[in-house]
Write a structure and sequence with these properties.
The protein is of the alpha/beta class and about 280 residues long. It has a domain at about 1-100 and about 275-285: ATPase, nucleotide binding domain (Nucleotidyltransferase, domain 5). Helices cover about 45% and strands about 20% of the residues. It contains 13 helices and 10 strands. Strand 2 and strand 3 form a beta hairpin. The protein is globular, with a radius of gyration of 19 Å. About 40% of the residues are buried.
């Protein structure tokens, strides 16, 4: 049995595949980001948030392939791997950057521009084997255009600056109890501000038919294209694909933006796990 894990800042999606018995098991746990969590914290989250829910014994898992946010550097990859190994002893653990998950799931062994739009965002040019160029996302404070966190930031900023249409403001205050002081506290003093801000995309989805909300979502994706996607010289000549819940649920606006830049997003995947499992079985790695 092997496991594929797609770990963002908000959550980790797990797919355990038993090829011999033709069985698959899917689970969710909290997200793992080595910039925010220690190896010990990762181990504890797995031991208490994942393993008690498994329908099989830990010893049956032979290999785990985790693709994670914040796993660019070898030291960060090892930090996550150490946390997993303590929870899954005697198991091969491989940790990769989440951008590689997007590239492999979208394009397997062909070239393309792979994009992530979930809680955070990122892009890369993939040559069919490895990532050869990455326009830095820069995280929520400096970038992350197109992400759920970025869209949430635009929304609450308009709310706090009283730049939101009256009917949207009324709907916002009916749904959420947080006001300016609580929002400021959550963003500047509590853990995982991107998770908090991304949570407001539920509201955006509920009101996507409103011109104000459409414009906000459109602006977010447009800034991602302008600042990231168009920086790849051949972006009009190779396939462009997206993974992530934000890209999936707001794909109508995403495709409108892509058309404005003279391209079409060829593939949008909400969850890359099935595609990644096939990739690993096909490659035997």
């Amino acid at each position: 049995m092997i496991a594929i894990a797609d770990s963002g800042t908000t959550k980790t999606s797990w797919l355990f595949v038993d090829k011999i018995n033709n069985k698959k098991y899917e689970y969710k746990s909290v997200g793992f980001n080595p910039y925010y969590q220690s190896s010990e914290n990762i181990t504890n989250n797995i031991l208490h948030g994942l393993i008690p829910h498994l329908n099989f014994k830990v010893q049956e898992v032979e290999a785990i392939y985790l693709y994670g946010a914040g796993c660019e550097l070898d030291s960060r990859k090892e930090q996550v791997a150490v946390g997993i190994r303590k929870a899954f002893p005697n198991c091969k653990v491989s940790v990769y950057h989440d951008l590689l998950a997007a590239a492999r799931a979208l394009f397997s062994d062909t070239a393309g521009i792979a994009c992530i739009s979930g809680t955070g965002s990122n892009t890369c040019y993939y040559d069919g084997e490895k990532i050869v160029k990455n326009v830095e996302s820069l995280g929520l404070s400096l970038g992350d255009e197109g992400s759920g966190g970025y869209k949430g930031k635009l929304l609450v900023r308009d709310y706090m600056r009283k730049q939101m249409p009256a009917h949207i403001k009324e709907a916002f205050e009916k749904k959420y109890t947080d006001r300016t002081p609580e929002i400021m506290d959550a963003v500047y003093t509590k853990e995982f501000p991107s998770r908090y801000l991304a949570s407001f995309t539920v509201f955006l989805g509920e009101h996507i038919g409103d011109p104000y909300v459409q414009q906000l979502v459109h602006r977010s994706f447009s800034e991602m294209f302008q600042n990231c996607v168009t920086k790849y010289e051949n972006y009009k000549d190779v396939p462009i694909g997206y993974i992530g819940s934000i890209a999936y649920y707001f794909q109508d606006e995403l495709q409108k933006v892509a058309a404005e830049y003279g391209v079409k997003v060829s593939k949008i995947i909400r969850n890359p796990l099935e595609d990644l499992a096939e990739y690993h079985f096909k490659k035997g790695i």
